[in-house]
Structure formats: structure tokens, C-alpha cells
Amino acid sequence: MLLLQELICILLISLAHGVHDSCPIMFDPPDVVVEFGASFSVNCSSTNVTHQFGLSWEGPDDTMENTEEIIRSVDKVTDWEMNKTCFMYSNETKCSQDLPITIYKTPDNVSISFVNHSGPMIEGNQYELKCDIQNVAPVQDLTVKWYKGQTLLDQTTFNDTSKTPVNETATLLITADRADDGAQYRCEAELDLGDGPQIPIISSEPLSFEVHYKPKHSNLTVFIIKNNEVMLNCTVKANPTPTYTWHSEHLKEKSSSSVLPSSTLSPGNYTCTTENSVGRDSKVFIVSDSECPVQIIPQRAVVEYGSSVAVDCRALIPHDGMAWEADEGGTEKTSANVTTWNVSNLREWEIKPYCYINYIKIANTPPCEVQLPVTVYKTPDNVSISFVNHRGPMIEGKQYELQCDVQDVAPVQNLTVKWYKGQTLLNQTTYTDTIKTPVNETATLLITADRADDGAQYRCEAELDLGAEGPQPLPKRTSEPFSITVYYAPEIQSCNSWSPLKGTSLDSLHLNVYSVVGNPHPNISWSLNSSPVNSSRNLTENDSGQYKITATNVLNVSSCFINIKVQYPPELKCNESYKVKENTLFQFPCTANGLPKPELSLYKNGKVIQHEFFKPSWNDSGLYQLITRNQHGTVNSTFTVNILHAPVFYSSQENFVVGENSNITLECSSSGNPEPEMWWSFKNKNISTGRRHITFNIGRATSTNAGNYTCVATNEFGRRVKSFVVEIRDDSSNYILFVVLILLVLLILFIIVVIFLRRRNKLRGRYEIQSAKQYEMRPLSNGGPE
Ligand SMILES: *[C@@H]1O[C@H](CO)[C@@H](O)[C@H](O)[C@H]1NC(C)=O
Ligand SMILES: *[C@@H]1O[C@H](CO)[C@@H](O)[C@H](O)[C@H]1NC(C)=O
Ligand SMILES: *[C@@H]1O[C@H](CO)[C@@H](O)[C@H](O)[C@H]1NC(C)=O
Ligand SMILES: *[C@@H]1O[C@H](CO)[C@@H](O)[C@H](O)[C@H]1NC(C)=O
Ligand SMILES: *[C@@H]1O[C@H](CO)[C@@H](O)[C@H](O)[C@H]1NC(C)=O
Ligand SMILES: *[C@@H]1O[C@H](CO)[C@@H](O)[C@H](O)[C@H]1NC(C)=O
Ligand SMILES: *[C@@H]1O[C@H](CO)[C@@H](O)[C@H](O)[C@H]1NC(C)=O
Ligand SMILES: *[C@@H]1O[C@H](CO)[C@@H](O)[C@H](O)[C@H]1NC(C)=O
Ligand SMILES: *[C@@H]1O[C@H](CO)[C@@H](O)[C@H](O)[C@H]1NC(C)=O
Ligand SMILES: *[C@@H]1O[C@H](CO)[C@@H](O)[C@H](O)[C@H]1NC(C)=O
Ligand SMILES: *[C@@H]1O[C@H](CO)[C@@H](O)[C@H](O)[C@H]1NC(C)=O
Ligand SMILES: *[C@@H]1O[C@H](CO)[C@@H](O)[C@H](O)[C@H]1NC(C)=O
């Protein structure tokens, strides 16, 4: 029975106290956590007082007190392994319960340090950190926590069950990282004793890290649009501080700065090499003027409607893909460096292709795409000229409007319509309309009809100037030539007097001189003294006069008077021969006509004779030639001139001194026209007659023959007489005279010889003696008729 009660009791107690404890003892506090050396007190009580009758801290002996609660106090905990047990005794149970006691000690020191290392770390290498905790208990409740700054990195716990203080070391493996440079690491020792007292956490002094790492650029290539503010900033973090070296064909000076200012930049590539003791890295800056690192080739497309086009888009920097976007001819995104927009038959008037590229940009650059300007053109189907509200010929002085129709041309803003007269550009029209599809356009030209334009050819030319990328030569289309006719009233330009050559007709006046104008060409009529004249008849020298000329066409009539003088070549009328009296003023024997008045020249034997005051002498008979000339011709005439004159004697010996018995011949010759009659007379007796040449012979002269003989010549113009003297000499006187003459001659010869010899000695020269002159026979001067 008792055993059963006890069993039930135990069962009940165990039910009341929980699964672990069959002993209905309760501690207050339930467990003891106490620092080594500190004091504590604890109550022990039974959980079911009704059945208890003994509690003791010492053991199940007489110290048991019949009380509900016993207190135990410890002044100073000195035993690390101190045990306290509370005993209980009742009629239902007899049991004991150990008091759970935890004795702790915060560490004396916590410190952090490297294992086998000192100085800066190198990025990427592994290092071991350790945390030393001195004198801590109980180690099983110890947690070591690793912190970088405020960040918990790791924590370590210990399996050691030792209750006494120990020295512990926790370790941490780390890989050095650039982010750790300058970071502070520390470790904390924490005793986690459950619900017990708050135990201060002991932290190590922080450990500052120094990590050496090489420069590393985040973007290896960047594209920069050059403007005034842009600069190349290669600055990068590295430890130790790196050095910078720039390379570019555009850099004039070496630079070791991390930054290149805008002023030193021009489009191109700039490579910056950054280096320190750990390593090096490079960065390429591509500086460009354009906003997008692609090149469009050609930059502008000019395409004829319906023809093909191909334009390249070329990447200037490494990229992640590029493509053309277009309604026609777009391309797939490609990683190649070039992509081509290609359309074989462009039939889209307003196409706007653009090329885009995905590339590494520096901050704030806009999305990158480049539009290709495309001009689609079409030459006109037809270009034609017409009048506005007019037909037929134009009238001089009036204004007319011409219109040029250009059909189906695009783009009209590039169209120029040019007006030409012949090869002369008159005017041109351009258009500002921005429509891109084909249109019909009209250009007009105001012209004032002018006679000079009669028969002129106008044309208009539609030309498309599509700029430098456009086709060369410029595509153009020209209208058919448009001939115009200008009517104008007749005008007689010149009414000056006219001097036509004989044989000219009146009709030839306006033909030669263009003196009558008008369109249509006027009809010309002539009249003289109000009666019409046949203008085709040849004019004679008698037709000079004041003529009226009248010009008529559909527009008007014009007339004026013209003084006409008919010119003709010289005419000459001469006889075959003329008789002229000597010493009379000579008149031209012939009449010479002509207009203009001809000039006359008289020739004899090829020599000009001063003809105005020509007074012929007795011997000027002969063959004469008269020449007369004006601008229309020369006429000559040859005739004989016979000079009528009184007789003239020729010279002959007139004085005869002869000895007796000599023979003498007296000679007398004369000329005269008509031929004179001649005779000899001696002592008033006619002794002989004849003509031209008469002689008289005296044979065996005697003194009776001495005396004056007379020769007489006569005709109708005069009578001439010539005397001859005949003397008969005494012979004795002749002999003395002969001797004296011989002596005289010898003396002269002697003198000449002496002079000659002397001179020769002086000058030693040579001289010739000139022979005596010969004398011609001439007619004797003649005193004229007596
Ligand atoms: C213990 O004592 C109580 C009261 O005194 C009593 O009621 C109970 O029966 C006893 N238990 C046993 C097993 O005797
Ligand atoms: C004490 O024990 C009795 C009998 O065993 C039980 O009835 C009672 O509930 C217990 N009281 C406590 C507080 O456990
Ligand atoms: C406390 O109890 C444990 C085991 O129960 C024992 O090993 C130890 O020696 C005891 N300590 C003392 C001081 O009696
Ligand atoms: C502690 O014990 C656990 C399991 O028993 C074991 O896995 C761990 O390695 C031990 N720790 C140390 C520091 O001995
Ligand atoms: C712990 O280390 C300290 C200092 O090195 C030493 O004085 C002490 O004896 C050590 N304690 C233990 C339990 O080894
Ligand atoms: C390049 O650098 C910029 C800022 O400097 C950054 O936003 C971007 O992500 C970087 N690109 C790469 C691929 O590193
Ligand atoms: C260059 O860039 C660095 C950081 O990348 C910055 O600190 C520095 O101020 C820049 N230099 C200039 C001149 O802007
Ligand atoms: C500039 O750099 C780009 C990309 O690296 C390269 O394609 C290009 O040829 C370079 N240009 C020059 C002029 O070096
Ligand atoms: C693009 O050009 C760069 C040099 O400018 C060259 O290195 C690269 O191979 C080219 N890429 C392709 C896909 O052709
Ligand atoms: C022709 O048109 C293009 C645009 O299509 C324009 O850029 C260019 O200036 C034009 N040329 C002329 C001469 O108007
Ligand atoms: C040329 O044409 C324009 C209008 O198209 C006009 O204003 C201008 O007077 C013309 N010039 C001449 C010389 O006709
Ligand atoms: C231009 O004129 C032609 C002929 O008159 C006509 O067929 C065409 O439709 C016109 N085009 C436009 C754009 O008006």
C-alpha cells in the first residue's frame, strides 16, 4: 500500500513539476549566474507544501527543517566548480535537486592581429586574422564576433566544456579587397548566459587595414563629345597613388596629370595608362565632334526616285550592336563594325532612315542615333513654254507674259526654273515649298516686245540643284525653243541724199543700206514729182532728182524725200588730131564728163604736162595722150597735135674768108609749118629758090663773088632772113701771116713744156689734158615772126 502511495505521489509530483524533475523542489531564482568572486543567495522551496516535512541544503539528515522555504547565501564565489543541492523529505517522496550555477568571468583582454603578417596587404591575397581572448569563463558560452566597421562578418563559438577561465583564440581567413583599404576590423567577445545578468561585451581595439591595389578603370573605352567644358578625367583610385601617362598623336606635350583640359583636345583617341607598384590599367577616350560615334557614308543620300541607294553606317568605337532603322532597308542588329542601308528600288518620298549604336557612354550623353538625310528627286516629265492669254505675233512696245510649265518634279525646293533668250539667262525662279512629293509648277516671265527680239528663241530650263552629294552635272530638262515674232511699224532710217552708180536700181537702196526697217517687211514704193517710178529700172546719169520713198506694212506708213545724184564714170570725146598755133594758150581739145567730176592729165611721150597754162612752142608737135579718171573709172584718148609756126633757121656757117679760086657752098636750112618757101638773094636779086634746105655753090671764087648773101624763108605765119658774108683774101699777106702763126705756135709750145716740167718736179703728180668738148648742132634761137 505504502509503495503504491509513494508511486502515485512520485507520479503526481513529476506531473506537477515537469517531465525532468520528479523532485518537487523549486529554486528562486531557478538558476544562479554569478560572476566569479561575487555573492548570491537563493531560496529553496517545495512545490507542494502540503506534503512536505523537511528541506535541507546539507543533506537528508537532521538539518532538515520543517518549513516551506530555506535560504542559502554565498558571500563570495571562489570555487569554479561549486555545487549546491537542496534536499527534501516527505511521506510521499525523498529527493534532492542541484542548484544550476554558472560562474562566469569576462575576459581580461581581447585583441585582434594578423597571423604571420605585417604591413599593407595586397589585393587578392589571403590573410589570417586572429582574435585573442584572455581569461574568460565559461568558454562554452563565449561567442567571438568579427566586425568590419559596423558590419558583422562572422562569429565563432567553442565546444570546450571547461568551467574555469581559459585563453581562447579565434581566427578568420580573409581575401584582401580594395574595398577593405582603410576599413577597421575588430572582434568582440560575448558571453551569452541566457536570461542571466547583462554581461558587458568586450571589444578589441580596431585594426585598420591598408590594402594595396592596382588601378582599375571601370570603362576601358569611353566616347566623349567635344565641347568647351569637356575634359578627359582619368582619375582612378589605387593604392599606392598611381601615376598617369597619356598617349595620343594629338598631344603635343607629355602629360602626367590625371586630367586633360578641353583646350588640349581635338578629335581622336587618347589613351591613359595608369600604373602603381601593384599593376597597371589603360583607358581609351575617343573624342569626337559628332554626338554619336558612328560615321555615315555618304553623309547625305540623294536618290532618284525608283533607283537604288546604299549608305554605310560605320562604328567608330567598340560597341554592343548597331543597326539601321528604316521603313525600307532596315538591318538586323549586328556586332560588326559596318552595316549598310540598302534599297534597290526606292519608292518612298519621305523616308527617314537612322543608324543607332549601343555603346559605352559617359554619363549624360543622349541616346545615340544618327539620322540620314535622304533627298528623293525626280526630274520633270515635261517642260513647256506658252503665252498667257495671247496668240500670234507680238506688237513692239506691248507687254506679254510667258509661262513655263514644269510637270511632275520633286523636291520643288531644289528646283530652279531658268529663262533663256538664245544663250542669255534672263531670269530665274526658285521655290520655297518644302513638299517632298512631285508637283506641277509654273514660272512666268514678263517681256516687253522689242524689234530686236523678233525671231528670238526663248526656252525655259528646269534644273534640280541637289547639293554636293547630288548628281553632277545637275539634272535638267529644257523646253522646246519658243520662237517669237515681233511686229513693228516701218521706219526709214536714213533720208540722206544718195549717190548711186549709174546702172543701180532704186530697189537696191534699202537692201544695201538697211535704211528701211519694219516687220512684216514693208513694201517700198518710189515716186518722182508725184509720179510713180519703177524702182527696178536701172538709173542713168539723167535720173538724178528728189525722190519720195514710201514704206508700208500692216502697222503703218512712213515716207521721206531722198536727193539722188547718179554717179557715172568719165567719158571722153576727142578728135584724132588737132592743129594749134604756137604760143597760144592751149585748151583741152576734148570734153570730159563724169560724176564725181573727173580729173584730167595730159601726157606727151609718157611725161605729164602741166596742162593748165600750157602754151606750146613751135617744136611741141607730136602724139599726145589725155587721161581722165574718177572713182568709177579711167578713160584715155590719144591724138596728134600739130603746131603751126613761122619758119625757123638751123645754124650753119655764115662767114666765109677764102683765097681766090676756092670753091664755096652756102647752106641754109629752115623748119616751119606749113613748110616755108625759101630763096637766096644777092645784091637784091633772087638767085635760087627751094624748100627746107637750099644751097648756093660758088666755084673758083673771085673778088666779084665777095659780098652779102641773104637766105629768106617764109610761110603764112612769118618771114625770116639770114645773112651770109663771103670775103676773097689776098695770098701774100697770107704767107707772112702763116709764118707769124707758126712762130707763135712754137713759142706757146715751148712755154707749155717749161711750165709742165716745173710743175712735175714740184708735185710729182700726173695730169691729163682734157680733150676739147664736142659741140652739137642746134637750131638758132628765133626771134619770132617780124
Ligand atoms: C501522509 O500524510 C497525510 C497527512 O498527514 C496523509 O493524509 C497521507 O495519507 C499520508 N500518506 C501516506 C502514504 O501515508
Ligand atoms: C500536494 O500533494 C497532494 C497529494 O499528493 C496533492 O493533492 C496536491 O495537489 C499537491 N499540491 C501541490 C501544490 O502540488
Ligand atoms: C560537485 O559535483 C560534481 C559532480 O556532481 C563533482 O564532480 C564535484 O566534485 C563536486 N564539487 C565539490 C566541491 O564537491
Ligand atoms: C564543437 O562540437 C561540434 C559537434 O560536436 C563540432 O562539430 C565542432 O567542430 C566543435 N568545435 C570545436 C571548435 O571543437
Ligand atoms: C592565460 O594567459 C595569460 C597571459 O599569457 C597567463 O598569465 C595565464 O596563465 C593563462 N591562463 C591559462 C589558464 O592558461
Ligand atoms: C561605365 O562607367 C559608368 C560611369 O562611370 C557606369 O555607369 C557604367 O556602368 C560603366 N559601364 C561599364 C560597362 O562598366
Ligand atoms: C576626376 O574624377 C575624380 C573621380 O573620378 C574626381 O574626384 C575629380 O574631381 C575629377 N577631376 C576633375 C578635375 O573634375
Ligand atoms: C580609336 O579607337 C578605336 C577603338 O579602339 C579604333 O577603332 C580606332 O581605330 C582608333 N582610332 C585611331 C585614330 O587610333
Ligand atoms: C571592329 O573594329 C575593331 C578595331 O577598330 C576591331 O578590333 C574589331 O575586330 C572590329 N570588329 C568587327 C566585328 O569587325
Ligand atoms: C536641296 O535640298 C536639300 C534638302 O533636300 C537642301 O539641303 C539643299 O540645301 C537644297 N539645295 C538647294 C540649292 O536648295
Ligand atoms: C525675275 O523674276 C522675279 C519673280 O520671279 C521678279 O520679281 C523679277 O523682277 C524678275 N527679274 C527680271 C529681271 O525680270
Ligand atoms: C501635273 O499635271 C499632269 C498633267 O496635267 C497631271 O497628270 C498630274 O496629275 C499633275 N500632278 C500633280 C501633282 O498635280
Automatic annotation (TrEMBL):
Keywords: Cell adhesion, Disulfide bond, Glycoprotein, Immunoglobulin domain, Membrane, Repeat, Signal, Transmembrane, Transmembrane helix. It is a single-pass type I membrane protein. Its main location: membrane. It is found in: Membrane. GO terms for biological process: cell-cell adhesion. The chain crosses the membrane at residues 735-757. Residues 1-18 form the signal peptide. The keyword Transmembrane applies. GO terms for molecular function: integrin binding. Gene3D superfamilies: Immunoglobulins. InterPro entries: ICAM_VCAM, ICAM_VCAM_N, Ig-like_dom, Ig-like_dom_sf, Ig-like_fold, Ig_I-set, Ig_sub, Ig_sub2. GO terms for cellular component: membrane. Residues 107-190, 215-288, 380-479, 647-727 form the Ig-like domain. It comes from the Eukaryota. Pfam families: I-set, Ig_2, Ig_3. This is Ig-like domain-containing protein. It comes from Cirrhinus molitorella (mud carp).
